[in-house]
Amino acid sequence: MKFGNECYTWFMKDSGAHWENSLAHMIEVSAKAGMAGIEPIFSWMGDLADPVKLAECLNEHNIELAAIAFSQDWNKPEETDQERADADRAIELLKHFPEALLCTVQLPTGRHDLEQRRKNLVANVNAVSRRAVDAGVSCTYHPNSPDTSTNRTEEDYRVILEGLDASVTGWTPDVGHIINGGMDPLAKMKEYESLINLVHYKDWDGNPSFTLMGEGKVDFQSITQWLHDKNYDGWIICEDEAPEALEDPDSVTIHDGKWIEETLLPSIKR
Predict the structure, then answer these.
(1) Would you give the DSSP letter of residue 239?
(2) pLDDT in tens, 188-239
(3) For residue 49, how many other CB atoms are within 10 A of its CB?
(4) Which single residue of 13, 51, 137, 146 could bond 108 by disulfide (Cβ 3.0 to 4.6 Å)?
(5) Which of 169, 165, 242 is nearest to 201 (CA)?
(6) CB atoms within 10 A of CB 215
(7) Is the peptide bond before 77 cis (omega within 30 degrees of 0)?
(8) Is the peptide bond prior to 208 cis by the omega test (within 30 degrees of 0)?
């Protein structure tokens, strides 16, 4: 297994405005933290949405592109023209990085008309993923857990994960979002083990939600031990949403790298 970093830790402040066009900085800090990979947000890549510039920056810091987070509303039964165009641009970029995943995420816009909107989500994720796979790009779907998310509860997970077309997309269990939705992360991962092709780590203390990695209630040792014992060889991406990230995402990222190296990994029996 390999550890990487998600750029949402920087995006938290002012919905990304404070760190606009700063992906190169995030890559540099992630490398300094000991991370081997990074997962940028597609709509927030700035100049590094150019595959040549992105590859140069990644190579400079000896870090891999693990995945790209691709977020859309997907509230209609089919993609809107704009959603389809955005997806196709993300797929085109990822064709230059054949080992990286397209990580699909639905933006949380409410739980009204829930049954139909969950169906719409599944249909859109499957459609995007099918086009991506046809272009040689592997995919994974990432649920989230805000109160306005269609994919936060156990019932949501059952409907959505069992509706995914496993021939074109896997699943990214985000352990912090799972526990925030009232479920046990490891139990849910075991239930849908066959779908897992990317993992997100964030910690949670319920006060009101997320906290610094290693300081909350997520049992990372047991989860990581299980992944190790299953010979999981994919990415574990840290997406720290602790309140401290609002003011100092760099330090939060450095903290996470140190916690992985000094606390988490030494606890794993090999």
Answers:
(1) -
(2) 999 999 999 999 999 999 988 899 999 999 999 999 999 999 999 999 999 9
(3) 18
(4) 146
(5) 242
(6) 13
(7) no
(8) yes
